Amino acid sequence: MAFASLATNTTEAFVTLATNDDYSLGALVLGYSLREATTSKKLHCMITEQVTTPVREQLQRVYDDVSIVDVLASNDEANLALIGRPDLALAFTKLNCWRLTQYSKAVFLDADTLVLRNVDELFEREEFSAAPDIGWPDFFNSGVFVYRPNEETYRALLHKATTEGSFDGADQGLLNSFFSGWREASSAFRLSFIYNVTGGIFYTYAAAYKKLRDQVKIVHFIGTQKPWRGGVGIQMPEFAQIWHRIYERHVAGTVPGSSGTETIAESRSRWEQGRPDFTGKDAFAEIQEALMKNLQ
Ligand code: GLC
Ligand code: MN
After folding, report:
1. Ligand 1 neighbour 110 (Cβ under 6 A)
2. CA of residue 220 to ligand 2 center, whole Å
3. Which atom number of ligand 1 is nearest to the Cα of residue 110?
4. What is the pTM of this model?
5. Does any ligand 1 atom lie closer than 6 A to the CB of residue 89?
6. What residues are paired with 231 via a beta bridge?
7. What residues contact residue 15 under an 8 Å CB cut-off, 6+ apart?
8. Cα 71 to chain center, whole Å?
9. Which residues does 130 contact at the CB level (< 8 Å), separation at least 6?
10. Is 166 within 8 Å of 80 (Cβ atoms)?
11. What CA–CA distance (Å, rounded) separates 208 from 226?
């Protein structure tokens, strides 16, 4: 089922990025979640050459615009190791979002986010607005932010990236250094946590989650365990279920290999029956590595 664009405002857009077919599954579900929430803004997906043609075609069904951007690699293995995410070497590619100057204002959403209800009010905010990161709340999380596309900002970011690098080897470190006034800025620039709810592996405030979960507007599946990869390590299983339902409604069977995505329930029951997939989805080695790191 395809969705007609409801965009009445063509100068403001939600923007995301998919650097390969895997993340495109996230981008597809994110796009449909925005449509189901009846956004009046445009939807724009940036992709790299990595994304294959059938997947691009599906992205074009839900996004008003799909544009190809250059890969920007950080080449910073040492700092990426600090956050345990060697897979984020291409995360600077996100900076291309400042080049979408056809929009006067935009909201960037990671492809691993999911919109649960209309969030068009985010466009009332100014650059640079974001929500705190749960790992270190004096820094913002770069999975959801309000910004103004501008070539000059893009060049300044790129200059900073090439001359100073990023303290986490990826976009979040760079953006926090660039917009370093965020923590001290007025509260208008600090988005509520309901716009970027992340779950932690080692610490989650379960009581707050219980009290406020009905108000959550955007969920962000951080870490290596993404909903489209199934797995038992997934945080916030009830939100992952919502992700899977949107996936089943609009995406399953539309792109090669997309029908086989295991649901959380299936994955959990397989785990309970003692058949975890140690080599693949359950990424036991990853969980063990994270535990060992924490113990050290
Ligand atoms: C965090 C952010 C993500 C970013 C990464 C690296 O995980 O959620 O958007 O890519 O940090 O900076
Ligand atoms: Mn993310």
Report:
1. yes
2. 6
3. 9
4. 0.88
5. no
6. none
7. 44, 45, 46, 97, 100, 103, 106, 107, 108, 109
8. 17
9. 140, 141, 142, 144, 145, 146, 182, 189, 190, 191, 196
10. no
11. 23
Ligand 1 pocket: which of 76, 109, 110, 142 to mutate (most atoms within 8 A of CB):
142
Cβ(57)–Cβ(26) under 8 Å? Answer: no
CA atoms within 13 A on the CB side of 120: 16
- Cβ(233)–Cβ(19) under 8 Å? no
In the structure encoding, which two tokens stand for residue 280, read together?
């693949």
Q: How far, in Å, is the centroid of ligand 1 from the Cα of 4?
A: 31
pLDDT tens for the chain, residues 1 to 296? 456 777 777 899 999 999 999 999 999 999 999 999 999 999 999 999 999 999 999 999 999 999 999 999 888 999 889 988 888 888 899 999 999 999 999 999 999 999 999 999 999 999 999 999 999 999 999 999 999 999 999 999 999 998 999 999 999 999 999 999 999 999 999 999 999 999 877 788 889 999 999 999 999 999 888 999 875 556 788 999 999 999 999 999 998 767 655 555 555 555 445 444 433 444 444 444 544 444 44
Torsion (CA) 159, 163, 167, 173 in degrees, nearest 10? 0
Give the alpha-carbon dihedral of 31, 253, 2, 99, to 10 degrees.
Answer: 30
Tokens, residue 106: 């935009």
Three-state SS at 115: strand
